[in-house]
C-alpha cells in the first residue's frame, strides 16, 4: 500500500467548499503541507474530512499539542485507509487560561485517550468529550506538567 499525502492546496480547496469560513488563512504555510483550521471549526472540518467521499479520512492516527509559551498548536494526523492518502491539520489556541477545542471523539473513538492525555498534561479541554478526566496523573494533581510554565 503506497500511502501519499494530499497537498495543502488540494485539501484546503476541498475543505473551504465543504466547510466555508473554516480555514485560518493567517497561518497557512504550504511548505509544511498542512492546512490550518480555525479552532472553533475543528470538529466541523474533521467531520467533513471523514464523511466526504473523495477524502474519506476514516482513521485518526494521532492528536498532539505543542506549547509555544504564547500559544498552543494542536496537530491532527489523519489517514484514509481506502483512498490511501494522509493529511495533517493544525489549529492554534492563543493564551494560557481556559483553553478548549471541540472534541472529535464522536467521529473517531481513538480520540478518547488522546484528548484526555492532552487535557491531563497540557490543560487543553475538549468540549463534548464524554469522559474528560486525567488519564496519566491522579485526580487532584495540581497543574499540567508538559506546559512550559509548569513549575
Q: What does this 3D model show about the protein?
A:
This protein has 151 residues and is α/β, with parallel strands linked by helices. It is built from three helices and seven strands; from the N terminus they run βαβαββββαβ. The strands form two sheets. Strands 1, 2, 3, 4 and 5 form a five-stranded mixed beta sheet that branches. The longest helix is centred in the last third of the chain and has 12 residues, at 111-122. The mean pLDDT is 93.
Summarize the structure.
With 151 residues, the protein is of the alpha/beta class. Helix content is 22%, strand content 26%. It starts with a strand and ends in a 24-residue tail after the last strand.
SSE map:
Blueprint: E1 4-5, H1 8-18, E2 35-36, H2 42-51, E3 59-67, E4 71-80, E5 85-94, E6 100-102, H3 111-122, E7 125-127
Parallel strand pairs: 1-5, 2-5, 6-7
Antiparallel strand pairs: 3-4, 4-5
Amino acid at each position: 500500500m503506497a500511502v501519499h499525502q494530499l497537498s495543502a492546496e488540494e485539501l484546503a480547496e476541498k475543505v473551504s467548499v465543504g466547510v466555508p469560513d473554516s480555514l485560518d488563512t493567517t497561518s497557512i504555510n504550504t511548505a509544511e503541507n498542512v492546512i490550518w483550521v480555525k479552532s472553533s471549526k475543528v470538529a466541523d472540518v474533521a467531520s467533513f474530512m471523514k464523511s466526504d467521499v473523495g477524502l474519506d479520512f476514516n482513521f485518526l492516527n494521532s492528536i498532539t499539542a505543542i506549547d509555544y509559551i504564547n500559544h498552543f498548536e494542536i496537530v491532527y494526523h489523519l489517514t484514509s485507509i481506502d483512498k490511501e492518502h494522509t493529511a495533517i491539520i493544525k489549529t492554534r489556541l492563543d493564551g494560557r487560561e481556559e483553553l478548549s477545542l471541540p472534541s472529535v471523539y464522536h467521529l473517531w473513538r481513538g480520540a478518547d485517550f488522546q484528548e484526555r492525555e492532552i487535557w491531563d498534561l497540557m490543560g487543553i479541554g475538549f468540549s463534548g468529550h464524554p469522559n474528560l478526566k486525567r488519564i496519566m496523573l491522579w485526580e487532584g494533581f495540581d497543574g499540567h506538567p508538559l506546559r512550559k510554565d509548569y513549575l
